[in-house]
Each structure stands twice: as C-alpha cells, then as structure tokens.
Amino acid sequence: MPASEPAPELLHHVELWVPDLARAEWSWGWLLESLGAERFQTWEHGRSWRRGGVYVVLEQSPALTSDRHDRRSPGLNHLALRAGSAVELDALVTEAPAHGWELLFPDRHPFAGGPEHRAAYLADADGYEVELVAAH
C-alpha cells in the first residue's frame, strides 16, 4: 500500500451467533444505534449494523449447537466499543438496563479496567459482554 494512503481499518466485521434474534436485536440494536451505528442488513436469520467500514452481525443460525454464550469459556470474552465522552458513557449505563443490559463489576465501575481506564462492562441476557470505553 502506498505510504500516502491511510491503512484500512483492521476490523472488517464481527458476527455473533445468538440464540434469540428478536431479543438480541432489541438489546444490541439499541446499543449499536446509540453508539452511532446504522442498520445495514436484514435477512431471515440475521441483522447487522454498520459504522464507518466496520459492521456487527447478529445471527440466529440454524447451525447453533447451544443456547447460551459463556464469555468465560475459550473463545470471545467481550467486544470493546468506543462510547464517546464520560458523560455519554454514563448516559448509556443509565439507559442500558431498560434494554436488557446488566452492569458488571458495579463495585468498581467506572474504573473496573484500572484507574486510568474509564469504561462500563455490560452483559446482555444471553451472556455476551461489551466494554464501553470512554474517550480520555
């Protein structure tokens, strides 16, 4: 790639297989749209949202072998997403329970990731975790 052109984003997309598409669309759709993503694709077993060149897919695949994600098992532990300012992060945390999200590590919030890392760790009803990171 020529030095004059910016490198493409590292991440192309993330695909999460979910046990209940409607429930995931309700919680993840709210979160992703709150973070500035727009609905990108819709099909029988899936939905996606895109911001910039990166998109997130939720799919209730007929090939699923389980009905619950365990972030503590080998595989994906969590997605870390940029949440804007500290004020924007706090607003998301306040609204999140109404959309199916639970605050993890509430005793250490908003510095569960360390004293210099302001973030919120949330889990949805299916056990998926997101880390919402505030800008410095």
What is the topology?
Elements: E1 13-17, H1 21-34, E2 38-43, E3 46-51, E4 54-59, E5 79-82, H2 86-95, E6 102-103, E7 119-123, E8 129-133
Parallel strand pairs: 1-4, 5-8
Antiparallel strand pairs: 2-3, 3-4, 6-7, 7-8
Summarize the structure.
By secondary structure, the protein is of the alpha/beta class. It is built from two helices and eight strands, in the order βαββββαβββ. It has helices at 21-34, 86-95, and strands at 13-17, 38-43, 46-51, 54-59, 79-82, 102-103, 119-123, 129-133.
Task: Provide keyphrases for this structure.
about 140 residues, alpha/beta, 4-stranded mixed beta sheet, 2 helices, 8 strands
Q: DSSP strand (E) fraction?
A: 25-35%
Task: Count every helix, treating DSSP H or I runs of 4 or more residues as helices.
Answer: 2
Net shape: globular
Mean pLDDT: 93
Biggest β-sheet: count, sense, barrel? 4 strands, mixed
In sequence order, what are the helices and strands, one letter per element? Answer: EHEEEEHEEE
Describe the model.
- This protein is α/β, with parallel strands linked by helices.
- Helix content is 18%, strand content 29%.
- It is built from 2 helices and 8 strands, in the order βαββββαβββ.
- The protein has helices spanning 21-34, 86-95, and strands spanning 13-17, 38-43, 46-51, 54-59, 79-82, 102-103, 119-123, 129-133.
- The strands form 2 sheets. Strands 1-4-3-2 form a 4-stranded mixed beta sheet, with helices on one face. Strands 5-8-7-6 form a 4-stranded mixed beta sheet, covered by helices on one side.
- The radius of gyration is 16 Å and the shape is globular.
- The model has no long low-confidence stretch (mean pLDDT 93).
